[in-house]
Structures are given as structure tokens and as C-alpha cells.
Amino acid sequence: MRLMLPFPSPLSASSAPPPPGFRSEPTPPPSLNFPEFNNWAKKSVIGALTGALSFTLVFSSPLSSFAIDPYLSLKPPSPPDSSLNYLKPAPENCRDEEDAESEQPRDDDVRPEFVTDEDIVQEAWQIVNDAFLDTGRHSWTPETWQKKKEDLLSSPIRSRSKAHEVIRTMLAGLGDPYTRFLSPEEFSRMSKYDLSGIGINLREIPDGDGHVKLKVLGLVLDGPANAAGVRQGDQLLAVNGVDVAGKSAFEALSLLQGPSKSYVVLKVMHGDCGPVQSIEVQRQVNARTPVFYRLEKVDNGKTSVGYIRLKEFNALARKDLVIAMKRLQDMGSSYFVMDLRDNLGGLVQAGIETAKLFLDEGDTVTYTAGRDAEGQNTIVADTKPLVTAPVIVMVNSKTASASEIVASALHDNCKAVLVGERTYGKGLIQSVFELRDGSGVVVTIGKYVTPNHMDINGGGIEPDFRNLPVLQIHSLG
């Protein structure tokens, strides 16, 4: 399971400039005018390609863009082979996974003092060599990158600060504003950002029968779940009595969310074969709803319109949007206006799941493209639409990333018209990798493409209308 980021948050460490006129808090919605009508695995803190590929929740924004494992592991996962062995039941007896794992050598046992300055530079170089996608016109090639390493290491690197300086210079030479170096302090601040609210990292693991199970493959040290007795390798069975069998990690994340200091009960199975235990965990993060809605009356009160403002795509976005739309429908809404203005994005997976609410089964949500064939993927809607009423999507120059995925998915599948200004144009996917001295690098590893095969990045999305015959909408509240 994986993810991506685009809203101002503790993760923000981007060197890329914010959009012109950016404000950290969007202004309240004004009255509406609208028409009537892999090898990296052991280094990556949070997974690789986009939130859609293997359930990577993706934070994506013009300000801070990271493909971040949804619930944050402070330790790199074990190498691929040992991870696979660790997840399969022992053929003759069922050992606790924690014990099985202890027999495997761990990469995070390598202490920073035994890593040379040249090692750190080479490690950063290798990550770029394996993963970087050149989306500009810089003509990056493995040959020129190999020459870069030879030049960098031709002179001795005599301090850790010098090694970090070399990495910064090396990454700057790629010409990609989103690929950058993170100091140990910046990386530490990022890794403490916990999206589950209880300090766990969930991943979807195939069970061999064509289904998936949700495993705890990372714990925030001394976090709420860890302190309450949840172990690495536990299988999550239920949240507050709700069975999570067949649910995605994203759906489980929504169930885990709740007010800060409130409690959530997890039913887990330790190891592959039990015992099963119910554990009460106190939440520490209060995810706020990004959804605001009201019913508007137009045409002299003859027509009711459901207005929905989405400020960002967080773990509550889809769930709260469903509630809002159902309530507005019950109140007699004839059609919807979804306001994505000033929405810089958020969890890309949340954007993808939001778009699916409006699409027919089989409709394309977005395409992802990486450097090789493994990075190519098509994300499609897999259920019937929640609503079939007409939709107007409002966008502007600060509509970015996950918001652009939603806007283009609805537009290209003829489910909505776009009104407003050209969008920001953030269509790249980044992943965050930890280096062995506690620093890190953020690397562009892919991009997403609209259902009509348009590259969002750089150009944004041109709306259908800027100014239409309009009616003034007066809020009832």
C-alpha cells in the first residue's frame, strides 16, 4: 500500500515555489455563479509509484509532493525476499511473525557511523539511477548519470555536511523542482506525520486465494498502537466491530479516523495463525472534515442545487462527501456544484476514490506512467456511480494534483463541465527514500495522465467555460 501529498502540512519541505498568491487557509466559499444546468523497497520509507498502482495513497501538491506510505513507518521495510518469506505461514508450524522476522538481518541495523560519506552520495545516486523519471527536456540518460557519479567521486568527500551538499548539487542538476534532498531533521519531521491517527502502517498483502488481507507492516515507535500492544506483522480483522475483510487499506484508514483523544478498538490476529486480540487504542490525530455543503435555491426558488466545497483530499474526503451528497439529494437537490477552487490536492488515492463516485463501472479515472513498463497502469471505476445528476466542477489556478485528477476524470468521461480558470498543472508522482544516515531524498518517479491522454503537468486543465449566463446563488445558512 502506498500514497501522495499536495496540501500544506507538516510534510512541507519542498523547495518548489508555491503557486502565485497561495494562502495556507482558503477563504470561505463566496456566493456561487454558475450555469443553470525494489530494490528500492529496503530504502523507501513509504513505497513507490502512485497511489493508484498498488494502493499507494498519494499526497500530491505543488508545495509538497511525496508518494508516502499512508500511515508512515519509521523503519525501512525488510528486503523483498525476506518480506515474502515473512508473510507466508510456516509449512509445518505457525510461528509468530515477530520471531520469524528477528531471524532476518535488518538493513536498519546498519548504524550511521559505519556509513561513509561516499556511501551516502552513492546511495542517493543509485536511487535516482533506479527510479527517476525525467519529465522535462533535460535528456537524462543512464550514461550521463554514470558520468555524473564518476565526477562526484573523483575527489574525496571529507565530511557528512559536504556529502549532503554534493547530493543537493547533484539533484539540482536534474532540473526537476520536485526532486530534492531532505536533511535528517526534515526527514524526521516528515516521518512523524501519521495519517492513521494511531501510528500504524497498513499494507494490502495477497493471501494466495485471490484476496488481500491488511497487515501492520510498520509502527511509529511509542505511538498509540505500539503502546497499546499492536505488533508489526499483525493482521487487522476489524475496526470498532466492523469487519475489514475485503476492504482496502484506504477504507480501513477512514474507519480508524476520529476525534483526537477518542478511542478505537482494533481486532487483530498476532502473526499468521493467532491468537486474536481486541485492543483499545487512543487516537492522537484529529482529521478534520474537508467537506462543506449547503442547499442553494435558484430560479426564484424553483430549483434546488447542492453546493459542495472540498478543501483538500484527506482520509475523510470520500466518506464525508458521500454523506453530503446523500443529504443534499434527500433535500431535493436537482444537480450538484463541486467547488475545487484553491484545493491543492491531498491524498491522491482519496481523489481517485472520490472520482469513482461519479463514474460508470469501467470508466477510466486516470493513467499512470513511469520509466518502465511496470510503472504503466490504468485506474478504472469498479462500481456504479453514487449519483447520476448533472455536476458542475469549479476550478481555478490553485486547483492542483488530486483535484486535477478528479476534475479531468469527470470531464473526460462526460460526467461534469468545468467552470473557472485553468488549473495549476501538477501531474507528477514523487516517492520519499531514506538514506542510511537518516537524511532522505524526494524523487519524481512517475506522472499521471487524464482519461483523454492529456499530460496534466505544466499545462493544467482548461475549463469548458470561464463566464456563463449566471444566476446569483444565495446561501440559506
Strand and helix layout:
Elements (H helix, E strand, L loop, with lengths): L1 E4 L27 E2 L21 E5 L19 H8 L9 H6 L14 H15 L10 H11 L7 H13 L7 E3 L1 H8 L8 E7 L5 E8 L4 H5 L6 E5 L2 E2 L5 H8 L6 E7 L6 E7 L8 E8 L4 E8 L6 H14 L4 E5 L6 E2 H9 L7 E6 L7 E4 L10 E5 L6 H11 L4 E4 L7 E7 L5 E10 L21 E2 L1 E2 L2
Parallel strand pairs: 1-3, 12-13, 13-17, 17-18
Antiparallel strand pairs: 2-21, 3-14, 4-20, 5-6, 6-7, 7-8, 7-9, 9-10, 11-12, 11-22, 15-16, 15-20, 19-20
Helix pairs in contact: 3-4, 3-5, 10-11
User: How many helices in DSSP terms?
Assistant: 11
Strand content: 15-25%
Q: Which structural class fits the helix and strand makeup? A: alpha+beta
* Main sheet overview: 6 strands, antiparallel
Quaternary state reads single chain
Terminal Cα span: 41 Å
Overall 3D form: globular
Give a count of the beta strands, DSSP E runs of length 2 or more.
Answer: 22
Short description:
By secondary structure, the chain is α+β, with helices and mostly antiparallel strands. It is 23% helix and 24% strand. The strands form 5 sheets. Strands 5, 6, 7, 8, 9 and 10 form a 6-stranded antiparallel sheet that branches.
3D architecture notes:
By secondary structure, the protein is an alpha+beta fold. The protein is built from 11 helices and 22 strands. It has helices at residues 80-87, 97-102, 117-131, 142-152, 160-172, 184-191, 224-228, 249-256, 317-330, 348-356, 402-412; strands spanning 2-5, 33-34, 56-60, 180-182, 200-206, 212-219, 235-239, 242-243, 263-269, 276-282, 291-298, 303-310, 335-339, 346-347, 364-369, 377-380, 391-395, 417-420, 428-434, 440-449, 471-472, 474-475. Strands 5, 6, 7, 8, 9 and 10 form a 6-stranded antiparallel sheet that branches. A 6-stranded mixed sheet has the order 18-17-13-12-11-22. Residues 1-112 and 470-477 have low confidence and may be disordered.
